[in-house]
């Protein structure tokens, strides 16, 4: 486990898992949101974002959390481990709402400085539609690159805790 990609819906806990996994393994952690978003929720130019991502992916050790399905072809072939947080909607949607309420007006550690938490109905709509819009693409990419990495599909917070506990023991 040297190059780990963590994918799944918003609010599933990708960034939290990445940080905890980084603490256990000592691997450097990169959040896709930090690479993509410039201060004030301004999107990075596509070529520049891809260049930043490729620079990380070309190194020998990393944990990268985030979906950005357009970049699966960059990350997944280099990953030796993929962790897919395949949580039910009621868990991750509730977590997103709570994250907005709890962090409103503040910047999370997994996004660029100046990207303050806000209420965005379009974002909530995107999160709600993940089972129809994003999940099929994730499953397709995991199947396309199957065999190039070890895949761990975790479907509940309990499975995530148990996964981390096993890593601490070994």
How would you describe this protein?
The chain has nine helices and seven strands. It is of the alpha/beta class. The chain has a single domain, classed as 3-Layer(aba) Sandwich (Rossmann fold), CATH 3.40.50.300. The strands form two sheets. A five-stranded parallel β-sheet has the order 2-5-1-6-7. The longest helix has 15 residues. The chain starts with a strand and ends with a helix. The relative contact order is 0.21. The mean pLDDT is 94.
Find the CATH topology. Answer: Rossmann fold
What class would the helix/strand composition place it in? alpha/beta
What's the number of helices? 9
Q: pLDDT under 50 segments (min length 5)?
A: none
Outline type: globular
Which range best describes the helical content: under 10%, 10-25%, 25-40%, 40-55%, 55-70% or over 70%? 40-55%
Oligomer category: single chain
Indicate the radius of gyration in whole angstroms: 15 Å
State the domain count. 1
**CATH architecture annotation name:** 3-Layer(aba) Sandwich
How are the strands of the biggest sheet laid out side by side? 2-5-1-6-7
Give the tally of β-strands: 7
Main sheet record: 5 strands, parallel
Distance between the termini: 12 Å
Determine and state the CATH class: Alpha Beta
* Share in β-strands: 15-25%
- What value does the average pLDDT take? 94
């Amino acid at each position: 486990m040297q190059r780990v990609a963590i994918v799944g819906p918003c609010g599933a806990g990708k960034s939290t898992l990445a940080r905890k996994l980084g603490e256990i393994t000592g691997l450097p952690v990169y959040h896709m949101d930090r690479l993509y978003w410039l201060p004030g929720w301004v999107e990075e130019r596509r070529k520049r974002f891809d260049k930043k991502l490729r620079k990380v992916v070309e190194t020998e050790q990393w944990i990268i959390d985030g979906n950005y399905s357009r970049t699966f072809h960059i990350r997944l072939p280099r990953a030796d481990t993929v962790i897919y947080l395949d949580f039910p909607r009621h868990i991750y949607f509730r977590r997103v709402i709570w994250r907005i309420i709890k962090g409103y007006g503040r910047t999370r550690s997994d996004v660029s400085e100046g990207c303050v938490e806000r209420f965005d109905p379009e974002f909530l709509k995107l999160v709600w539609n993940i089972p129809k819009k994003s999940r099929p693409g994730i499953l397709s990419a995991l199947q396309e690159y199957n065999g190039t990495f070890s895949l761990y599909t975790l479907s509940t917070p309990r499975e995530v805790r148990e996964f981390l506990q096993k890593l601490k023991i070994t």
